[in-house]
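Risk mitigation, structural track. In case the binding assays with flavin-adenine dinucleotide fail to produce interpretable data, a predicted complex structure has been prepared as a fallback.
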Amino acid sequence: MLLKPEEYIERLGEYKRDIYVLGKKIEDFVNHPNIRPTVEAMAYTYSIAEKYAPHSELVGEKVNRLNYVNQTFEDLIARYDYQRELSLKLATCNYRCTGCDAINAIYPATKALDEREGTDYHRRFLELLKEIQKKDYACTAALTDVKGDRGKRPSEQKDKYLRVVEKREDGIVVRGAKICQSGAFAADVNFVLPTQTFRPGEEEFAVVFAAMPEDEGIKYILQNTGIQAKQREGGKFEAGNKYGDRTTCMVVFDDVFIPWERVFVFEDLKAARDVVSYFAPSHRCVGAACKAGFIDSMAGAASLMLKTSGLENVSALQQKVAEMVAVSEGAFAISVGAAVKGANHNGCWLPNFQMANSGKVIGVEGFAKALMNLIDISGGIIGTSPSEFDLEMVGDFLRASEKFTAEQRLKIVKFIEFWTTSSHLVGAFHGGGSPTAALITLRFLMDLSSREEAVKNCIDF
Ligand SMILES: Cc1cc2nc3c(=O)[nH]c(=O)nc-3n(C[C@H](O)[C@H](O)[C@H](O)COP(=O)(O)OP(=O)(O)OC[C@H]3O[C@@H](n4cnc5c(N)ncnc54)[C@H](O)[C@@H]3O)c2cc1C
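Fallback model:
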């Protein structure tokens, strides 16, 4: 089934959630100024879903592309088209991509696990997936543990990693905290996955499950960055983008009971490794398509900025916009190429792992370059402008090209201020793991010897 945006918001409003902003529990979270923009961004995914919706054999109807197990490279390309459009139209996170990556990681991993161990985790997962597809749930994924001292193993600092603290007949009890969680407070289902692989003796951390609104003991503590402060100040456009910053939270699991039906990996180190190994390339590859959409948005903003400043005929600056479009198309091309060169893993089509990791590295470099060009084009005003509340006093001074009002110019300025000062650059870097993490993976995957051999041949080495 495909839900309407307002149906998603209505359902969300029925959930009882412990959400904290600035140390205080909030009421009516759906309408809170720091949360509503995320809700609107997620709602937007529903408004254009029809265009990309595949038919699901599992439930016998059209479902949201973000809740679908990809079967072919065409499926992946359709997902990347959807992602790019969302990133362009929202200029922020759509929040559901991690959920899609989790679905496309848990599916092949549980299938392999059941074939190896004769368990029934895959059946359990399919039952939940059916519900997700039928009810068009918005899904997110929580991997990142707080991790403490990065030089120590989880077993040396148990409180820093989410773990199973009790095994019962009807389920498990989990304890710990996930950090930097995009949009989890506004999702229907939050998949919980390990942040890394584990060694023998660390089985208590090797757990994968789905957290649902009825689970008790979950607390969401919202991020507080500059954009959040602006959102609380109010105004029509002061915060830059009506869909908000990339809003994340910490999710604290305070001895939360999870029934077996929603547990998909338990104490199995190989399966936990599989889930992480499938999630990472899936997320890094869609990340390149996402960066393409973000850079598209920045290119649009750059072009409008040139016009409002009266600089649209300066060819050196137009060249900077063309460079932005070049890196956007390049990042997207990596996603498409990785989809085509991908492979079937236990019934799920995943992108080519080397290309996916390269997409992460190149996508971030492209994003950073696009930001530099945007800043160059826009001038110092994007880091120094007065607020929209000062417009009456300063409007005449701020106006540039006569073709635009002072308010129009300030809107563009605030939008670019949002791009350059919000958590987007950090998010581009670290979402799905840092470029360094992608390079570490690439060093395992890459074949240098055939490259060396080719060189030796050229020089009769
Ligand atoms: C805006 C934003 C949104 C996010 N959304 C989500 C989300 O929805 N879900 C989710 O699960 N996560 C999310 N993340 C988290 C993201 O995946 C992590 O930030 C990322 O994996 C890096 O982990 P870290 O922040 O703990 O960095 P750190 O672990 O502190 O890493 C810092 C640097 O050190 C390197 N490093 C760390 N440990 C080691 C080691 N032992 N050996 C060698 N190198 C090491 C890292 O690669 C990195 O370069 C989000 C992050 C951001 C910024």
